[in-house]
Design goal:
By secondary structure, this protein is α/β, with parallel strands linked by helices. The chain folds into two domains: 141 residues, no CATH class; 51 residues, no CATH class. Helix content is 42%, strand content 16%. The chain has eight helices and six strands; from the N terminus they run E-H-H-E-H-E-H-E-E-E-H-H-H-H.
Length: 202
């Protein structure tokens, strides 16, 4: 009897305030960049090993939101589906089972429903330490909330920082803030457009 063939599909979201905005398309490198990717890869590899299967291909994606897939991700999935064995089963970790967190229904639209299997997000030992998705995502949300802080205070800090260049153009103001290391409330770089919207009367 032939061994079953699997394809691992992993995804994560960017964390701009932490400087995590790009992900390598190479799954091994992506796993080193992101603990979430590493966790999914370990879960899926363990499943394939227990099933005496073959992990034929892996895909690592970065999504901007949990409720929609980027065109780039959909194109990558379509390319993968077309290139792997027609008998391959696509594996992913279904984080929405963890108290409703991080669903990705649109990502599933890029995969054949009759050959897609979602694995539960169980705690897993990684390098001798227990990785619990619930605790991990809670911690990141708390850190994000603490980083973003109060929007009114952030707005006041930006306006105060701009005093030396108050009469300059928006592009020059944006460059000034970026050089000063003062980013947006979400940790991104300023552009003329987002700064203009940010400074518009509320």
């Amino acid at each position: 009897m032939p061994r079953p063939i699997y394809v691992g599909v992993y995804w994560t979201r960017p964390v701009p305030w932490a400087g995590f905005v790009t992900l390598s398309p190479d799954p091994a490198t992506a796993a080193a960049q992101s603990r979430t990717i590493r966790y999914q890869r370990e879960i899926i590899r363990r499943f394939v090993r227990d099933a005496d299967g073959i992990l034929d291909h892996e895909v690592a994606l970065m999504e901007l939101a949990p409720d929609r897939a980027t065109p780039e991700s959909m194109a990558e999935l379509e390319k993968t589906v077309a290139s792997v064995s027609p008998a391959a089963i696509f594996l992913s970790v279904e984080f929405s089972e963890t108290r409703g967190w991080r669903p990705h229904p649109f990502l599933r639209k890029g995969l054949p429903p009759d050959r897609t299997l979602a694995l539960p997000p169980e705690p897993l030992l990684i390098d001798g330490a227990l990785f619990d998705p619930i605790s991990h995502f809670r911690q990141w949300r708390a850190q994000e909330k603490a980083h973003i802080g109060d929007k009114a205070q952030h707005r006041a800090r930006v306006i105060e920082a701009l005093r030396p260049v108050i009469d300059e153009s928006y592009p020059k103001k944006a460059v000034f803030l970026n050089k000063a290391g003062i980013g947006t409330n979400g940790g991104r770089h300023w552009t003329a457009d987002n700064l203009r919207k940010f400074l518009a009367p509320e």
